[in-house]
Amino acid sequence: MNVHHSLPVPTLELDSVAFNHRGQTLLKPISLRLAGCQKTLIMGPNGAGKSLLMRLAHGLLTPTSGKVRWQGAPPAQAMVFQRPVLLRRSALENLTYVLAINKTPRPELKGLVRKTQAMSALEKFGLAHLAKRPARVLSGGEQQRLALARAWLLNPQVLFLDEPTSALDPAAIKAVEDAVLEFHHSGTRIVMTTHDLHQARRLANDVLFLHNGELIEHTPADDFFTAPTSSEAGAFIRGELVW
Ligand SMILES: Nc1ncnc2c1ncn2[C@@H]1O[C@H](COP(=O)(O)OP(=O)(O)OP(=O)(O)O)[C@@H](O)[C@H]1O
Ligand SMILES: [Mg+2]
């Protein structure tokens, strides 16, 4: 189990956040509040703007207009990308590296301790046998799991996951969902995208539904899957919404 967070997760507020690129509106103004240690799932068809919204919320992109705010001190955040970004080093070294440069979790960790921690994270995600392999030659699913192991070690208060299971086999999907629940139980707020409706039903407390760069609805999960308020979300759930 990860270290428990003693502090409450600050509320994330988006105030009319919009994003344009070369005169094209990619995200129309979005206002929302994500409070507490919940699991928010972002859903919507390809190109709807899900990854963009996550990058804006995480602070990797600056909105063209509007504001992203944390109520309280900005929390420790980590993000697992749709396409993992890994260093040209072994799987193990990708993990010991973040422990070495990241001061937040345990500044006192020495090399050997870092290695032990990194190995236990590899084991947790079924990668121990690949510790010495260059990260960039790992398969797509293995890279995704390595990115999760890295996020795990950072012990973030807020974790953004962009389709973390899209390249994974069924057993690995289960392992990732269990890890998401463990993060959640140790006090980490989850913001995640998925195209898997069953997965969203299993994990979501609330759902943000995007279509064509627009936030169509933000609904408690129970309502979203049984009685979505928008016709677009209804069509999406029935598998009928075409981009
Ligand atoms: N940096 C960028 N420059 C120009 N266009 C971009 C940029 N990033 C995203 N887009 C465009 O914005 C739209 C939304 O992209 P985004 O990656 O957020 O979609 P998505 O909902 O995550 O889709 P998917 O389900 O395929 O991952 C797409 O049409 C994409 O081409
Ligand atoms: Mg995406």
Automatic annotation (TrEMBL):
SMART domains: AAA (SM00382). One of its GO terms (molecular function) is ATP binding. InterPro entries: AAA+_ATPase, ABC_transporter-like_ATP-bd, ABC_transporter-like_CS, MetN_ABC_transporter-like, P-loop_NTPase. Coiled coil: none annotated. Keywords: ATP-binding, Cell membrane, Membrane, Nucleotide-binding, Transport. PANTHER family: AMINO ACID IMPORT ATP-BINDING PROTEIN (PTHR43166), GLUTAMATE_ASPARTATE IMPORT ATP-BINDING PROTEIN GLTL (PTHR43166:SF9). Belongs to the ABC transporter superfamily. This is Phosphate ABC transporter ATP-binding protein. It comes from Vreelandella sulfidaeris.
